[in-house]
Amino acid sequence: ENLESESIAVCNIPSAAVEETADSTLCHILNLYRRNTWLYQAMREGTRVQSVEQIREVASGAARIRGETLGLIGFGRSGQAVAVRAKAFGFNVIFYDPYLQDGLERSLGVQRVYTLQDLLYQSDCVSLHCNLNEHNHHLINDFTIKQMRQGAFLVNTARGGLVDEKALAQALKEGRIRGAALDVHESEPFRVFCDYGSVGGDGAAGTSGAQRRSLQVT
After folding, report:
1. SS3 of 1, please?
2. Taking the complete model, does pTM exceed 0.70, yes or no?
3. Distances (CA, A) of 158 to 54, 73, 75
4. How many helices (H) and strands (E) does the chain have?
5. pLDDT tens by residue, 16-69
6. How far apart are CA 168 and CA 208, in angstroms?
7. Domain architecture of the chain: domains with CATH
8. Ranges for the D-isomer specific 2-hydroxyacid dehydrogenase NAD-binding domain (predicted)?
9. Which of 192, 188, 78 has its CA nearest to residue 131?
10. Is the dihedral angle over the CA atoms 88, 93, 98, 104 positive or is it negative?
11. Which of 190, 193, 200 is nearest to 171 (CA)?
12. 144: Cβ–Cβ under 8 A, 6 or more apart, which residues?
């Protein structure tokens, strides 16, 4: 209302950075599974990779992707784009979205589950692709983390407030969550709370092409 009174237009461009967000999400997922960041850091430090045993230790957390189950919470534009990419890597893709009509899953060759609990229980990696509102603040919390598979991964390129970061940090330290990749955070500047994942600064949607598309629409 305040903007309207000043004759200032407000535009929402939800599709401008869908592809960029999906690409970044897959990068985070692949990094967690294949431990590229950890291997790169070990190579830079040098002393950690001077023997076969040291290399094996650094890479010991890497996991095979094909046959793993990726669970998507939210199946809008970005969720669907991630699903297409993930299937190409051999993931079994499931999703939970209470607002989406039935039928879309058949066209994309993915499986729909009808409760959040089912998705958390079945997924080896959980990726968030939903909006933030008063009903899903801290959707991922101590209670829901305990419903996830032991040693699962968590990826958030959606909204920082979806994840209770203190609960996540505790789960990572206890080994209940194997690793996490957070591109968005509830508060900024972000303070790294553990060494069990990768963190970013809301860059998943950032490319010059996405910025140009936003400007073209507006």
Report:
1. coil
2. yes
3. 36, 10, 12
4. 10, 7
5. 689 999 999 999 999 999 988 878 887 787 766 677 787 777 777 789 999 999
6. 32
7. 19-40+64-191+210-217 (3.40.50.720)
8. 28-190
9. 78
10. positive
11. 193
12. 116, 120
Q: 178, 154 in Cβ contact below 8 A?
A: no
Question: What pLDDT does 206 receive?
Answer: 40
DSSP conformation class of 63 = -
Q: What is the CA radius of gyration of the chain?
A: 19
Cα gap 158→129, rounded to integer Å: 5
Alpha-carbon distances of 4 from 8, 11, 101, 173, 216, rounded to whole Å: 6, 12, 34, 48, 22
Name every residue whose Cβ is closer than 8 Å to that of residue 49 and which is 6 or more positions away in sequence: 42, 43, 55, 58
Relative orientation angle of helices 18-34 and 36-45, to the nearest 10 degrees: 60
